[in-house]
């Protein structure tokens, strides 16, 4: 039986590469995002094993409509890759825009939780898998990471708490926590279209690439059913840890 996997954030970056990798490996993939035209391009490439689903995670109504619109042959979803998400801005909390905070919370937490809640009964029935896209930002604080990091800490704890509830069902849950990753729209979105600023971040860093994440997702899905990888933190070799700063009075 070919498994069906729903991947959010399929119109760019990690999600795009995950869809490519999973279809190549023989899965049926529903790719969800707001930009349907991008998903149609992916459909051109991937063919009948891919279904493009227009869906805005910030609207529960829109998520309901999207799921209800799936044709019968795409209704039986085994596994969910909650990959969609975003950071907006890198301002200090005291200078940040609250609208940006709301968008991050609505997308990275509320949307992710709503979709998971909607699909979980099916996933339990089919003993599937939930893979959530966390981040190192959910563990290590950094200046300007305020709400973005907090949303990823939510995703991490939600993943672990799902494990606590799902024990005995055969459903697996993983929180995947990447560090600096280029080749996606992430920084362009964070810096609101400032291409130079976005590019500078990756210069000389040999950062994680979408293909690395896609291969990791496939590896997770293909682990034997008796193994659950709870959390998986990945960094580029070039990224490491720094000392904690101390502010000193002059
Ligand atoms: P991209 O910006 O390239 O992709 C983000 C995806 O999320 C897009 O497909 C976008 O599609 C989708 N998305 C955003 N908002 C919504 C929404 N309201 N409804 C539905 N889909 C939405 O970023 P990445 O591929 O880099 O990021 C993917 C995930 O990985 C995110 O959760 C991010 O936080 C996480 N991550 C990224 C890292 C990095 O350094 N790149 C490192 C660690 C984690 P559309 O605009 O068409 O809706
Ligand atoms: C993206 C990684 O370090 O820019 O989640 O927050 S980071």
UniProtKB/TrEMBL annotation:
An example molecular function term from Gene Ontology annotations: oxidoreductase activity, acting on the CH-OH group of donors, NAD or NADP as acceptor
Name the record gives this protein: SDR family oxidoreductase
Pfam families xref list: adh_short (PF00106)
Keyword field contains NADP: no
Record key words, sorted: Oxidoreductase
Coiled coil: none
Family: Belongs to the short-chain dehydrogenases/reductases (SDR) family.
Highest taxon of the lineage: Bacteria
């Amino acid at each position: 039986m070919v498994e069906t996997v729903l991947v959010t954030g399929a119109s760019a970056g990690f999600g795009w590469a995950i869809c490519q990798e999973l279809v190549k490996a023989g899965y049926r993939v529903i790719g969800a995002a707001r930009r349907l035209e991008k998903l149609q391009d992916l459909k051109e490439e991937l063919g009948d094993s891919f279904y493009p689903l227009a869906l805005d995670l910030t609207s529960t109504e829109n998520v309901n409509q999207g799921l209800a619109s799936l044709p019968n042959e795409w209704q039986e979803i085994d596994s969910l890759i909650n990959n969609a998400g975003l950071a907006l801005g890198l301002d200090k909390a005291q200078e940040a825009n609250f609208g940006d905070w709301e968008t991050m919370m609505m997308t990275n937490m509320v949307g992710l939780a709503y979709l998971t809640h909607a699909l979980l009964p099916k996933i339990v029935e089919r003993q599937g898998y939930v893979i959530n896209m966390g981040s190192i930002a959910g563990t290590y604080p950094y200046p300007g990471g305020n709400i973005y990091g907090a949303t990823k800490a939510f995703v991490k704890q939600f993943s672990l708490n799902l494990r606590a509830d799902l024990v005995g069902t055969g459903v697996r849950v993983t929180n995947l926590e990447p560090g600096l990753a280029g080749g996606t729209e992430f920084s362009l979105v964070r810096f609101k279209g400032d291409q130079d600023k976005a590019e500078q971040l990756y210069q000389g860093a040999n950062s994680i690439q979408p293909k690395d994440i896609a291969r990791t997702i496939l590896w997770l899905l293909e682990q034997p059913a008796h193994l659950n990888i709870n959390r998986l933190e990945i960094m580029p070799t070039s990224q490491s840890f720094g000392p904690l700063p101390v502010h000193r009075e002059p």
